[in-house]
Amino acid sequence: MFFAWHVPVTQLSVNINKVAVLRNSRGGTDPDPLEAARCALAAGCHGITVHPRPDQRHIRPADVVAIPAILGQAELNIEGNPFAPARGSYPGLLELVRATHPAQVTLVPDSDAQLTSDHGFDPSADLSALRKRIGEFRREGCRVSVFVDAGSRGLARLADCGADRVEIYTGPFAAAVARGDVDAALADCLATAREARLLGLGVNAGHDLSQANLATLLAAIPWIDEVSIGHALFAEALYEGLATTISRYLAILADVPR
Ligand SMILES: CC(=O)[C@@H](O)[C@H](O)COP(=O)(O)O
Ligand SMILES: NCC(=O)COP(=O)(O)O
């Protein structure tokens, strides 16, 4: 049974990694990811997402620790691999969480070799190590979301490990929309979202979401709690400005029939 009053408007968390990538490409201080976050928050987004990695080619620990001071009522979501060791000035995900107290941590099994995140945790695998990490983040007061592939089943095992939400990896869905044959990819997202809802897990979604595909996803899965969007959002903002781009995303979220 699905009650409308259980469904707040899907939250938009703006991933500012791409701003850091542009800054890092010249080694200076511009563009400033913190300024982009300020602008996104002023435009009404509900949260800021960052995905620091040990190789620090994206957002860096020094950027992340500055974010809580500008959040106001908005949430910080830190994504990362809970098993990636500290390296150089990267202190590891748990240390970053202890320094910043984000509302949410999203656990992603990516490695340095990946260009970007391209798969989720497998709920059918041995989850004993993940269970321990989830417990550590929950003890820090964070909501814990686990990144999973669309089509993943057996989510009860993640719930049993203490996960609060899953984040559905929407890269294949976005590619399917671009190809014009979305049915199978959307069915995969829907199957995972339905199972999560039945288990009482929250549902987040992210990767390659854009103004071109977000409404399609939300029309099929209106109970999505949060979408985190970065790459396409900043690409679109090059042409239409960041505040205008965010207002367009908020309009898409507000239009979802509930
Ligand atoms: C976890 C996830 O879905 C990724 O989309 C990620 O956060 C994007 O990060 P990059 O922009 O650094 O590739
Ligand atoms: N969790 C997904 C995210 O934060 C942003 O992904 P993308 O929009 O940069 O692909």
Automatic annotation (TrEMBL):
EC number: 2.6.99.2
Keywords on record: Cytoplasm, Pyridoxine biosynthesis, Transferase
Keyword Transferase assigned: yes
Molecular function terms from GO: pyridoxine 5'-phosphate synthase activity
Catalytic activity: 3-amino-2-oxopropyl phosphate + 1-deoxy-D-xylulose 5-phosphate = pyridoxine 5'-phosphate + phosphate + 2 H2O + H(+)
Residue positions binding 1-deoxy-D-xylulose 5-phosphate: R53, H58, T116
Cellular component GO terms held in the UniProt record: cytosol
Residues annotated as the enzyme's active site: H51 (proton acceptor), E79 (proton acceptor), H207 (proton donor)
Pathway membership, UniProt: Cofactor biosynthesis; pyridoxine 5'-phosphate biosynthesis; pyridoxine 5'-phosphate from D-erythrose 4-phosphate: step 5/5
Record GO biological process: pyridoxine biosynthetic process
Primary role: Catalyzes the complicated ring closure reaction between the two acyclic compounds 1-deoxy-D-xylulose-5-phosphate (DXP) and 3-amino-2-oxopropyl phosphate (1-amino-acetone-3-phosphate or AAP) to form pyridoxine 5'-phosphate (PNP) and inorganic phosphate.
Record note on quaternary structure: Homooctamer; tetramer of dimers.
Protein name as annotated: Pyridoxine 5'-phosphate synthase
Source organism per UniProt: Dokdonella immobilis
